[in-house]
């Protein structure tokens, strides 16, 4: 099974570290993984021009083409975002909006895939839940089955407190436990439904 992870951070730091940790765990269990990092990529915002509805492709030619391919080829999708202004990053927001062009080709193209959320905040309560809820809403809109870590501590997904430091996120035991629980459920759903 193929897992496509999107790192929506503009930097190579804490969010990318956590996503790479998650993908390495999945690889150890035999999953094929791919990561798309927004860092140094061009993802322009959707113009909502409806070009895709008539032409079955986006009018914008940028790095979103790699995201379209990754989403199509995957069985499972992980959205990993830094918390910015109490929610998801602008990079991830643009990706979400631009997915419209993919579904203009086939309305059901993402339906039935399994989705997982990772949120990394500079503060312990910096907006991780709001970021998870946006990711879960995205999954639901596109027919992707959202998975949480269950009702005992990872209710919406894997939540991290980076304290704006790569070294601090590596010792965030609570965050790593939330990732472990969420990955466990993600694998269960993939093995049951895919």
Structure write-up:
This protein has 194 residues and is of the alpha/beta class. The chain contains seven helices and six strands, in the order βαβααβαβαββαα. Strands 1, 2, 3, 4, 5 and 6 form a six-stranded parallel sheet that branches. Helix 5 links the parallel strand 4 and strand 5. The relative contact order is 0.17. The mean pLDDT is 96.
The number of E-state strands comes to 6
Helical fraction equals 40-55%
- Chain-averaged pLDDT: 96
Overall body shape: globular
Summing up helix and strand content along with how strands pair, one would put the structural category as alpha/beta
Major β-sheet, in short? 6 strands, parallel
Radius of gyration: 16 Å
Report the portion of residues in β strands. Answer: 15-25%
The topology string of helices and strands comes to EHEHHEHEHEEHH
The total count of helices amounts to 7
Distance between the termini: 8 Å
């Amino acid at each position: 099974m193929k897992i496509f992870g999107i790192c929506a951070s503009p930097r190579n730091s804490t969010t990318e570290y956590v996503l790479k940790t998650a993908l390495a765990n999945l690889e150890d269990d035999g999953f094929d993984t791919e990561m798309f990092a927004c860092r140094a990529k061009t993802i322009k915002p959707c113009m909502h021009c409806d070009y895709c509805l008539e032409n079955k492709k986006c009018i914008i030619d940028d790095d979103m083409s790699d995201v379209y391919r990754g989403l199509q080829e995957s069985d499972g999708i992980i959205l990993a975002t830094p918390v910015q202004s109490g929610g998801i990053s602008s990079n991830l927001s643009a990706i979400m909006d631009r997915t419209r062009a993919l579904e203009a080709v086939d309305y059901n193209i993402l339906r039935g895939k399994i989705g997982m959320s990772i949120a990394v905040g500079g503060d312990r309560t910096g907006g991780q839940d709001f970021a998870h809820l946006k990711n879960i809403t995205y999954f639901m809109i596109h027919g992707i089955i959202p998975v949480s870590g269950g009702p005992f501590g990872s209710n919406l997904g894997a939540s991290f407190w980076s304290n704006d430091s790569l070294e601090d996120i590596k010792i965030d035991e609570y965050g790593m436990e939330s990732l472990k629980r969420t990955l466990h459920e993600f694998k269960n759903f993939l093995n049951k439904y895919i």
